[in-house]
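Protein folding task:
====================
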Amino acid sequence: MQPLIYHNPDCGTSRNTLAMIEASGETPEIVEYLKNPPSRERLLELLDRMGMPPRDLLRRKGTPYDELGLDDPALRDDQLIDAMRAHPILINRPIVVTDRGVRLCRPSERVLDLLAAPVETFTKEDGEVVTYSKDR
């Protein structure tokens, strides 16, 4: 299975994650989720495979999170899913799917454990050097 990344090209973390995947020699399927958001069923599947409740996938910065009152603890999971479907920018990114698992890759180096042949050293856009060790 080729990796799949739910990607936002305007996000540095997402760009770094994509670059790490490509540097490993893999060619991922890229889903620009703001243009092609996941279906409700797919979003629920991703959350289940990540072992993550919907609230933990919500992005606050640069989104309508506050205006929509999404910090209200009384909101049910289905209401949070509805908000993410209506406003895909609320979905935190990047999410990477491989045959090794599904993960929200924040920080971007979280992708390395999902890759068959991860790069040992990678320099992010901001100059930070990431070193991968199988023992970590």
In short: The mean pLDDT is 96. Residues 12-23 form the longest helix (12 residues). Helices lie at 12-23, 40-50, 54-57, 77-86. The longest strand covers residues 4-7.
